[in-house]
Amino acid sequence: MKIMTLIGLILIVLGVVGLILGGITYASTENVVEVGTVHLEVDQKEEVPLSPIFGAGAVAVGVILLFVGRRRKSLISGCWGSFASDI
User: Fold this and answer.
1) With contact defined as beta carbons under 8 Å apart, do 10 and 68 qualify?
2) In whole angstroms, what is the distance from residue 66 CA to residue 6 CA?
3) Cβ distance 15 to 62 under 8 Å?
4) pLDDT the model gives residue 12
5) 4-42 burial: b if 16+ Cβ within 10 Å, else e
6) Rounded Cα–Cα distance for residues 38 and 59 (Å)
7) What tens digit of pLDDT does each residue of 45-75 get?
8) Are 45 and 25 in contact (CB under 8 A)?
9) What proportion of the chain, given as a percentage, has pLDDT over 90?
10) What is the DSSP annotation of 67-86?
11) Total structural domains in the chain?
């Protein structure tokens, strides 16, 4: 598989996931109190919102790379095919 096609597929998948989820959620642990052997920790959920524009843009760029990668492959094979038939 060509590198452009692979990058295009990855961008499409990431763009669709970004559109569906709308953001990245992660948990962070914060050490609140530490007195001797007593430890008190708090888990906090934090979210990084992703704009739908980024998801749609990733899908669009992925589709373009996918078609360019396949078109380039067909152009190269078409050129070599006509060259081989001339010999």
Assistant:
1) no
2) 8
3) yes
4) 95
5) bbeebbebbeebeebeeeeeeeeeeeeeeeeeeeeeeee
6) 50
7) 988 888 889 999 999 999 999 888 877 656 5
8) yes
9) 30
10) HHHHHHHHHHHHHHHHHHHH
11) 1
Structure-token pair, residue 45: 């959920």
pLDDT at 38 over 90: no
Say what the pTM is: 0.60
Residue 59 tokens, joined: 């899908």
Backbone angles phi, psi at 25, to 5 degrees: -110, 135
Contacts of 13 (CB under 8 A, 6+ apart): 62
For residue 29, give its domain range: 3-86
Question: In this structure, what DSSP letter does residue 36 have?
Answer: T
For residue 58, give both structure tokens: 């990733």
